[in-house]
Amino acid sequence: MFNGSIPALVTPMRGDGAVDYAAWDALLDFHLREGTDAVVVGGTTGESPVLDRSELEQLVARARARLAGKIPVIAGSGTNGTAATIVLSRAAESAGADALLVVTPYYNKPTQEGLYRHYLGVADAVSIPVILYNVPGRTACDLLPATIARLSLHPRIVGVKEATGDVGRGQAVLEQSRPGFLLLSGDDPSAAALMRVGARGVISVTANVAARAMHELCAAALAGRHDEAQAISERLMPLHKALFVESNPIPVKWAVHRLGLIGPTLRLPLTELSAPLRGVVEAAMVVASIAVP
Under CATH, which number does the domain 4-226 receive? Predict the structure, then answer.
């Protein structure tokens, strides 16, 4: 159910900073046309730290209605407190999410035991699947394979988004976790390599811009055509890298804006892509055969 190319969607905003729900609907339509396999709503790339609960609920509800069950809707519902995460997770479930993506608690640096209890608390509080999300480069918190293996025994904890870019780490997760536990890449440059060793897809930044190509990459990898998947990845590599010339989601939001799908606005403390770097991102889009208006 949660396989293939899964963009962590940007959140469209008007010039005054309000969520642009009309652009959101159009963005969802774009991903249906381009073959996207599932979407993440309100993840890091969607500016989750500056979305309030009611906005997340509306984004999830509109995605649920617009996509009409054609592809799954995964809601980002992690915070750095267990009680707050449970509240947000229940709200996302009520709004229609098919699953939850729950990032490790950032800033307060819990122990592995604390992480274990945090995720058990969340999974016990909801009735839909939970996907763990490990991105230590942003959170200063690393969910280790042994802890993931313990958590994989919970019936609602179905997988992990592993964003370290370490293929060996992904292999360790698969070896130690229960059979059938889902491994998803959270790192576009290494996604094809991780799928070669057993990952089932990627929760992607690049798929916001190169939606069709990322779908084709994942489809090839899932069919065992790993050389083809790697070739697509290599063609997209300049774009993978360009989308991180400033902090995510600054570059990718600019790129989606250049496609004419959304406005360029981000909420402070994030700002629009620096002018000298706009050409870098646009050049990478051209290399990836993406037409820039």
Answer: 3.20.20.70
